[in-house]
Design brief:
Elements: E1 4-10, H1 14-25, E2 30-33, E3 45-46, H2 48-55, E4 73-74, E5 80-81, H3 85-93, E6 101-103, E7 106-111, E8 114-117, H4 122-127, H5 133-148, H6 167-173, H7 178-188, H8 202-218, E9 224-227, H9 233-244, E10 248-250, E11 257-260, E12 266-271, E13 274-283, E14 292-305, E15 318-322, H10 324-327, E16 333-339, E17 350-357, H11 363-366, H12 368-371, E18 379-390, E19 399-401, H13 412-426, H14 437-440
Parallel strand pairs: 1-2, 1-13, 2-10, 7-15, 13-19
Antiparallel strand pairs: 3-4, 5-9, 6-9, 7-8, 11-12, 12-13, 14-17, 14-18, 15-16, 16-17
Helix pairs in contact: 1-9, 1-13
GO cellular component, one term: cytoplasm
GO molecular function: Rab GDP-dissociation inhibitor activity
Family: Belongs to the Rab GDI family.
């Protein structure tokens, strides 16, 4: 450990491994360390034995679950948008070659206690039972506007400046009723609360457009894909990429600690009496006490089922969004379903995850609207996680710290955080339009 590195990265969560891969491709010399003996950190996938050790220590594994090696439980369950940032990063870096994916069967939204397929384009709008006949045509007009919109072609703007007009004003232009606005904002644009309504409409419109494009990319009933064997495959894929470009990995380093120089700037990491030097240190919030603050909490239920989630067409994989207004809450609730078809559980079993931002002193009770959608539950485990974020941007102290994982069941905010960190460290953007990272490594935008 007496070498000097461009960066030392602490933690092997998806964000840290993704960033390590991007920096390694960029020619940076990387040392990657984790206190755990496995990859994934907070975003790991645990087998059945590890799950019981975490939630029910000392309790024997039920024999009816079969081999513990056949199970992979995502601690931060999320799907990937087919045309979203994570897929673009996977293609840009070549990591997609290390993984296998399946398209997710369905995308649904809850209205009035009932589950409906999410309409994502003009054709879906006319078929949807979410809306009455006249509302269908109004929604169809809105979807056509979004599908046709091109930022650099004023002919597609219909006179709207999306950097000026708010989402609320744009919806009003199309005469959409509150229920339609609700599913567009939360199930298509994937906004986590209603603050987007009074912000410029561009972000919302581009998010709906991304949803529609992702749906078209795989020609399935949802815009999402999911890796076989669970999300734990993703950090390992990016770790493998970093290793190909010369990155060094050290797991099971429980005493890894950031070292600071006299000016208070991070200059390396110590472990087992040795110190590795680096120009800057990167990591998840747990390695930087005193440099992060809690901005909220997320509660997640991990559920084992012996049947598909009801009312979603016997789907093996599904996302269901419960918009905040449907439960009288301040934030949305997310239901994520997968099954033995994804090699994450024993044959004939299904996994469901319910997650939301914590708003009360009884987080488990907050999950009831999502749990009620699942039918009979064999067993479930509840985890409350703090969502942390750095108190500064790293430019002063050389500590570049990722944000915690939110309740959403998609990866857009996760990758946005990594790309922001990459830009703070390197001073440039990742060129995701370049498919060959070796050819573009080190190039400025």
């Amino acid at each position: 450990m007496d070498q000097e590195y461009d960066a030392i990265i602490l933690g092997t969560g998806l964000k840290e491994c993704l960033l390590a891969g991007l920096l390694s491709v960029d020619g940076k010399k990387i040392l990657h360390m984790d206190r755990n003996s496995y990859y994934g950190g907070e975003s790991a996938s645990l087998n059945l034995k590890q799950l019981y050790e975490k939630f029910k220590p000392g309790q024997e594994l039920p024999p009816h679950y079969g081999r513990w090696q056949d199970w992979n439980f995502d601690m931060v369950p999320k799907f990937m948008m087919g045309n979203g940032l994570l897929v673009r990063v996977l293609v840009h870096t070549g990591v997609h070659k290390y993984l296998e994916f399946k398209a997710v069967d369905g995308s649904y939204v809850v209205k009035g206690g009932k589950t409906y397929k999410v309409p994502a384009n003009d054709k879906d709008a006319l078929r949807s039972s979410l809306m009455g006949m006249f509302e269908k045509y109004r929604a169809r007009s809105f979807f056509i506007f979004v599908q046709d919109y091109e930022k650099d072609d004023p002919r597609t703007h219909k006179g709207y400046d999306l950097d000026v007009i708010t989402s609320r004003e744009l919806f009003k232009e199309y005469g959409l009723d509150p229920n339609t606005v609700d599913f567009i904002g939360h199930a298509l644009a994937l906004q986590t609360d209603d603050s987007f309504m009074d912000q410029p409409a561009r972000k919302m419109v581009m998010a709906v457009k991304l949803y529609s494009e992702s749906l078209a990319r795989f020609e399935t009933n949802s815009p999402y894909i999911y890796p076989l064997y669970g999300l734990g495959e993703l950090p390992q894929g990016f770790a493998r990429l970093s290793a190909v470009y010369g990155g060094t990995y050290m797991l099971a380093k429980p005493d890894a600690e950031v070292v600071y120089d006299e000016a208070g700037k991070a200059c390396g990491v110590s472990s087992e009496g040795e110190t590795a030097k680096a120009k800057y240190v990167v990591g998840d919030p747990s390695y930087f006490p005193g440099k992060v603050r809690r901005v909220g909490q997320v509660v997640r239920a991990i559920c084992i089922l012996s049947h598909p989630i009801p009312n979603v067409g016997d789907s093996h994989s599904v996302q269901i969004i419960i918009p905040q207004k449907q439960t009288g809450r301040q934030s949305d609730m997310y239901v994520f379903g997968c099954s033995f078809a994804h090699n994450v559980c024993a044959k004939g079993k299904y996994l469901a995850f319910v997650s939301t931002a914590v708003e009360t002193a009884n987080p488990t009770a907050e999950l009831i609207p999502g749990l009620q959608l699942l039918g009979a539950i064999d067993e479930y485990f509840v985890q409350v996680s703090d969502v942390m974020e750095p108190v500064n941007d790293g430019s002063e102290d050389g500590c570049y710290i990722s944000k915690g994982y939110d309740a959403t069941t998609h990866f857009q905010s996760t990758v946005e955080d990594v790309l922001e960190m990459y830009k703070k460290i390197t001073g440039k953007d990742v060129n995701l339009d370049a498919d060959d990272p070796a050819a573009t490594a080190g190039q400025e935008q």
